[in-house]
Amino acid sequence: MNTPEPRPTVRHAGHVVDPLAEPAGGVRSIVQFTRPLRRDERQRFRQAYGLALTEYLPDQAYAESVAPQQLADLTEEPLVRAVTAYDARLRRVAGPQSRRDFSSPRARARTDGLLDAVLFPDAEPAAALAAVRERGGADPVLIDDRQHGAPVKIRFRGDETVEAAVAELDDVRWLEEVGEAKLDTEQLDARTEAVPLARAWAEPLWRRGLTGTGQVIGVVDSPIDLRHRFFADPLHPVGPAHRKITGFRNPTAEAPGKHGTFVAGIAAGDDPDRPGEHPGRGVAWAARLTYGNTDDVETRGILSLLAAAAADGARVHTNSWHDEPVPQYSQLAADLDAFTWTHEDHLVVGSAANRGERLGPPGTAKNVLAVAAAKGPAPATFGDGAVGPAADGRQKPELMSPGCSIHSTAPGTVDSVVLDRELFGSPGPICASSWATPAAAGLAALVRQYYLQGFHPGGTAGSGPGFAPSSALMRATLLAGCRPEGNHPYPGTTTGWGNVRLDEVLAAGLVVRDVRHADGLDTGESVTVRVRVQDASSLLAITLVWTDPPGAAGSGEPVVNTLELAATPPGGTPPVRSPGRPDTVQRVLVPDPAPGIWTIVVSAPAVNVGADGQGYALVVAGASAV
Q: Which of 28, 425, 542, 606 is 20 to 30 A from 152, alpha carbon to alpha carbon?
């Protein structure tokens, strides 16, 4: 294991700062260490100096509140490289690039920018609210997301002069313009020829008994038409007893949306008169849904929607929309990572936008699975999605699922299931990451059922003890079957790790390790797993995924904790290592692996945030447990 040498600079909001060359720290400071801290060292600095050690800034630094009487002692610590002031430069992206051109009528109607001031953890919200108002912030309101693991924000309106004034407040850690949730609507693709028969590619999974039974999928989109029989229940109101919809928040006065109704049908729609038989049923047709309105992302924030869906039983969340913030790792992305970090069993899925657009959250959050559209089941070709990777180099999108020429539910009807081009009036075939995203969420619900109902490792319900998988394990399982197709760079900038092949993965059997944060790795620790390869002609695919703590919005490199993956063949020859990219997904793919015992090592060069440790999920396909 190679412990990374920290850079002497801090990279944040487009600025590069050497703390040694800056003024001494004040009430709000940057504390930079000489190396990654161990668990006991983090605990000592928390107890001795009251540091939070949660707002990580690359490299080896934290945004902190330091009491004046402790500042001198802290700078004398051997592990502390420097302590400097956290000043207004680091609180926002300066210049015209911080303001965006919005396209929607709602956004164009804004007379002043809608801004979020993100507060330091120890700030007093009421006092900060008053200070923002005094600096000219109009209509300020508090959004308190601390219960979800995210910071308090003050949302207000103001021009660039007001923004600069608010940036001078000590209680403010970050300022950014609030974006808009853009539904990733259909894209014409004249190259799409074949029209697949509904979800025929999911039939092998259904035959295994994986239908989504017992699962709830959260949908954030335009309103679903609850009058359609795929979602209706004449006997029960929306809620726990409803056959399909466990929750439905803020449908608004608008008519049911084409987009939301179509998306919901792909994820889990089904005909109650012939359950599991309609050719246009959803991927997880036996699952239920809970709904939140994308309009509320701007007014209430994403975390209230995810928390409400969680209360309704959802553990998989689908989002066929995206924002295009500057910088790309915005507070929206950080909030999504905060939710998944503190709710380890929740998987959030986000679309990879559309061709010609820029990637953005939800999909670009570290712990969110970003999905592009594939033409047909495997072997598949790229259909729709923005070009990656993420601005900081992480692999986005991560995979593809079918999203071209799709059948689903039509709003304004009782029972119509139509081809996408018919509903949206397209002159030609359609490919859309909007359709691929709920398809991937449906597959994730099947993965959760697979583990929860004991399909692992025997392949049938009850063949194993059954357990609730972490979101990292769900992501790793979906990625486990992705592989190179054709002579293209891998992973690809539009295709990610490839098309999801869930049936092939589950049919082959898996070696699985699912480790929660409480039992996770600390700086300098490692774990070894041994597997047996019997078939030298098969692909040995080893996938490591972890749910990372939220980075600081505006961070130049938002990955906080670093894990590494290596696999050593029989005989102890040099190990095969995962690429050294800053990412929460690491993979080792070995075609024609040598038969025998392979030794897999997961190591932790740097765990910068975490009271316990860094959890992870390891999935090995093409080998058996030893």
A: 606
- Tell me if residue 565 falls in helix, strand or coil: strand
- List, in sequence order, every residue forming a beta bridge with 12; answer none if it has no partner: 15, 555
pLDDT in tens, 503-515: 999 987 899 999 9
- Cα 236 from Cα 233, distance rounded (Å): 6
Residues 6+ apart with CB under 8 A from 399: 369, 371, 372, 440, 478, 479, 482, 496, 497, 498, 499, 500
What phi and psi values does residue 585 have, to the nearest 5 degrees? -125, 125
Q: Are 496 and 395 in contact (CB under 8 A)?
A: yes
pLDDT attached to residue 99:
53
Helix 68-75 to helix 39-49 angle (10° resolution) is 140
**Which value, to the nearest 10 degrees, does the dihedral of the CA atoms of residues 311, 312, 316, 317 take?**
-90
Where on the phi/psi map is residue 276: left (φ > 0), alpha (ψ -120 to 50), or beta? left
What mean pLDDT is predicted for residues 130-158? 94
CA distance readout (Å), 349 to 22, 147, 189, 352: 41, 22, 24, 10
User: Rounded distance, CA 368 to CA 340, Å?
Assistant: 8
For residue 469 the two structure tokens come to: 């998988």
Let me know the angle formed at the C-alpha of 440 by 287 and 587, rounded to the nearest 5 degrees.
Answer: 130
pLDDT at 378 over 70: no
**pLDDT score of 272 more than 70:** yes
The closest of 26, 14, 18 to 81, measured between CA atoms, is 18
User: Is the pLDDT score of 112 beyond 70?
Assistant: no
Question: Facing residues of 603 across strands?
Answer: 526, 564
Strand partners of residue 587 = 543
Cβ 32 vs Cβ 19: under 8 Å: yes
